[in-house]
Amino acid sequence: MSAHSNKELVKRYFDAVNAGDEQRIRSLVTDDFVFKSMYQNPPSMRMEWDIEGFAAAPRIMSSHMNKPIVLTPGTMTAEDDRVAVEAESYGEMKNGKVYANAYHFLFRIRDGKIAEVREYSCSYTAYDVFGEYLESF
Question: What is the full DSSP assignment across 63-84?
Answer without folding.
Answer: TTBSS--EEEEEEEEEETTEEE
